[in-house]
Design brief:
Elements: H1 9-15, H2 27-37
Length: 38
């Protein structure tokens, strides 16, 4: 249960993935960020 465990938040951060334990940013915020950069 640590960095190697993809089912935990710490494991997801080290693996660079998203899911239940570490949800990606909501679509609304991502769209607003993309619009601001454009």
């Amino acid at each position: 249960m640590g960095r190697g465990d993809i089912k935990t938040k710490k494991g997801k951060i080290s693996n660079g993935s998203f899911g239940k334990a570490r949800p990606a940013k909501p679509k609304k915020a991502a769209a607003a960020k993309a619009k601001a950069n454009a």
